[in-house]
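Our consortium's second objective concerns turning raw sequence data into structural hypotheses that experimental partners can test. To show how far this objective has progressed, the report includes one record in full. It was chosen at random from the queue rather than selected for favorable results. The single chain below, 699 residues long, was entered without modification.
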Amino acid sequence: MSMSLAHARYFLNRMVGLFHRSLASLRSRGLRATLQRIRVHTQTLPPPRRAPLYLPQAAPFAPFRVPSSATPVVSIIIPVYNEAAHTLACLRALAAHPPQVPCEILVVDDGSSDQTAAWMPQVQGLRYEVRERNGGFIEACNEGVARSHGRYVVLLNNDTVPQPGWLDALLDTFTQLPQAGLVGAQLLYPDGRLQEAGGVIFQDGSGWSYGRFESAEDPRYSALRDTDYCSGAALMIPRALWDALGGFDTRYRPAYYEDTDLAFKVRAAGHRVLVQPASRVVHDEGTSNGTDTGSGVKAYQVRNQAVFAEKWAQALRSQPPVGSVPSPALLHRQQRQVLILDEEVPQPDRDSASLRQYNLIRMLVDGGAHVVFVPTRREHAGAPTEALQQLGVEVWYAPFLQGIGAWLRAHGPRFAVVMMVRHHVASECLPLLRTYAPQARTVFDTVDLHYLRERRGAELAGNAGLLRDAERTRVRELAVMAATDITVLVSAAEREQLRIDAPGVTVELISNLHEVAAGGEAWANRHDLVFVGGFRHPPNVDAMQWFIGEVFARIRAQLPDVRFHCIGAEVPEALRALAATQPGVEIHGFVPVVTPYMDQVRIAVAPLRFGAGVKGKINLSMAHGQPVVATTCAVEGMHLQDGQDVLVADEAEAFAAAVVRLYQDPVLWQRLSSAGRRNVADHFSLDAARDTVQRVFLR
């Protein structure tokens, strides 16, 4: 397929798909909600915005205080040789935005002859250490670390301005990744451009500052990433590892290549070297030693390249050849690269499909893959996007992602696997993938069988128009399955349905992915009922209209003090109005952290009357040891048996009776609580899905 035809097919499929989904939305959601959905899909996206850089105002010296602790977790070592004004600005930044972690700050004076000796003793909380004689950057750093007391050491140039949160972001990386051995900050020029997001080393030992002069928000540089080295201008390393490796190698005295050498030593010792873009540090590069490699201290950069190349000759054989242009494809060349295409990035605190996708991405990253996520809406989603970047996922967004076709033309050849999420995304993108990534295995993640859910909703409503929409969805969904290599389903029940509807399709089962929680309060300390589910999903709207309108009053008649907590984003006004007529109903809307409701509420209800797939709301409750009362539809494909793992009822009177019975019976409650946790561990945990994930994506 030609490039122009592939782009035209993508645009046509996208417009046709949006038209059909808008018609279906009109029938199921109404005009107002449909117009909102169309606006989201067609709006012009603003560029993502990070906080403005903090640059302290120049002012005459006056005494001030910097953070200090007698029992520091982190020691910040700042070697200085003159340039007192820069040192002052660095310390003022540390004072203005103190780290959350206990720390000490050591200024190691390597023989300054300016105001340094007059100013530094007046900075309260600062450890001002004066060396006996000038020895250069390497000796100053080694001596400063030797005098420090923290479990972690940060080397920080005096010509830097650390940004708010920089130190805590570095430290959090070690908590997040136990294999981390050295973590560097993203270095910025004072005008906000990127100076370096980690460094690349070529086979001759020469280096490349990755991202220099580019936007610091560019997706190529915005994710946590393994790197060849991190500049000694701002890096963190555990003190014990520093000592074990002997610190900076003095063969590079007075300076240059000591940080690169340290990174190679860390990696040779079995640890990871990472650049953390969430840690931002402004660096006035060249303040101390200039930029001319032909004279002065900077000349050692040329000499030390040869020293470094000789020492690490064997390791350098696997580095990129000289003349290569660093890119994501090159930097992740030794990893299996997996592309995920969906409308938007997952928001695991909002819906079960997002939680499943987020945990799947975690499993791929843990399995050694480099994951790239491209939302077809091209939207930077704020915190959810940043959460993926902190996993190491390369997430693209406008304005850097100008179009799916153009992006795939540039990046498609690097992927071993491409997963498309939901049938309309797959329909739109398949022509582009055939043209630009023909080598990639194509995976279609249904999330649930849309046509099955739509058909059941149409039958419940008795709506012939919705039934026709469901049939059109069936045709499109099955066509995507026939055109892709693997179809991923979430439930065994859906797999059985496809054996009838599409027996030739290759199917794998990756169900909801949950971690079994520690467990909440005991029966006696729990009260009330809860439902969790987003209201962009029509089955949830119907479930709450039925439960609040027909079931809850029957429960309340026998349990007059019980309250019902309804949690979920985008609550329709009609549902709020209905809830206002029912005493004891509390509509909370979106709740960022639902764990307290899982751990402190006695029973979860899942009164779904139609739908498909596996119900994450049930998994979530059971993972926290919270028993569930549900309908037959809600527990479909979930390996649950009425009376053993869950209570099941489909009529209003029976559903209310089941809730009352479970609410009052601590023995039954405890039995279902324990069984539910076992069910999640056996069928819906990350461990349960590991072999299938390996088979589909990593082999």
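The partners drew two points from this record. The CA atoms of residues 61 and 449 lie 68 Å apart. The first strand starts at residue 74 and ends at 80. Both points have been shared with the crystallography group to help prioritize constructs.
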